[in-house]
Design brief:
2 copies of one chain form a homodimer. Chain A has 123 residues and is of the alpha+beta class. Helix content of chain A is 53%, strand content 12%. Chain A has one domain: Winged helix-like DNA-binding domain superfamily/Winged helix DNA-binding domain (Arc Repressor Mutant, subunit A), CATH 1.10.10. A 3-stranded antiparallel sheet of chain A has the order 1-3-2. The longest helix of chain A has 19 residues. Chain A is globular. The N terminus of chain A is likely disordered. The structure holds a DNA duplex (20 and 20 nucleotides). Chains A, B: Pfam families: HxlR.
Chain lengths: 123, 123
Amino acid sequence: MEPGSPDHEWREDCAPRRVLEIFSSKWTSMILHVLQSRLGGTARTGVLLRSLPGISKKMLTQTLRDMEASGLVSRHVHGTVPPAVDYSLTPLGRRFVEPIELLYGWARDNADALDALAVRPKG
Amino acid sequence: MEPGSPDHEWREDCAPRRVLEIFSSKWTSMILHVLQSRLGGTARTGVLLRSLPGISKKMLTQTLRDMEASGLVSRHVHGTVPPAVDYSLTPLGRRFVEPIELLYGWARDNADALDALAVRPKG
DNA sequence: CTGAATCCGTTTTGATACTG
DNA sequence: CAGTATCAAAACGGATTCAG
């Protein structure tokens, strides 16, 4: 066989690679998941913060800003004291919940394979 | 309702987060995919390089080293001239191909949602 | 051909303290 | 409570050089 031809021409802007970009942002998919688990797909900042052990306030805000710019969530500010802000899934955001739940579902069903992974989470 | 309890206690070492680590490495899942598409789950360095437009030799080698340490691939050196090295999926690696194909399949079926994403790939 | 080892700059992530 | 500023560390990634 002539192995010369790169048949797996994965263009840099192909669909799978675009999806990967969502998962390559450390917190984006987890935020979408938490929002999805809430009635109305909405949660306040503090809820998100407490639902994601390990995230810092800065990364949460930063990631939410990026997600808003991408059209995945919408931001709602209530003019109250003390301040209250909540974030909701947009219709686009709701679509991306699907592959995320698919992936997380596989993970829960295959925890044993993950235990076999020789690499521990960072530490 | 008392909203005080963080019911979505996502421990930092839970299964979904462990899977995310694979996808948060830019090339890991793509390498697994290319290997899976080959008979025997094996490919030589040059094939991988040509199959993944945009990857550099350095990142390929580095990622493959990490994957070997994680137990996802095995490295085989042929004592020939010129040198020949190929990489194969381990049984563990084959398991992780499943969620990857799941995700890529969703991406291919939902390219329209990806087009709607306001954020373009980097450039 | 494979791939290790530099140097270097960019991007991402994160801890901490601070403002309204 | 929500968000910002600052500083630091880590990951990422290209270019180059060297070796088997």
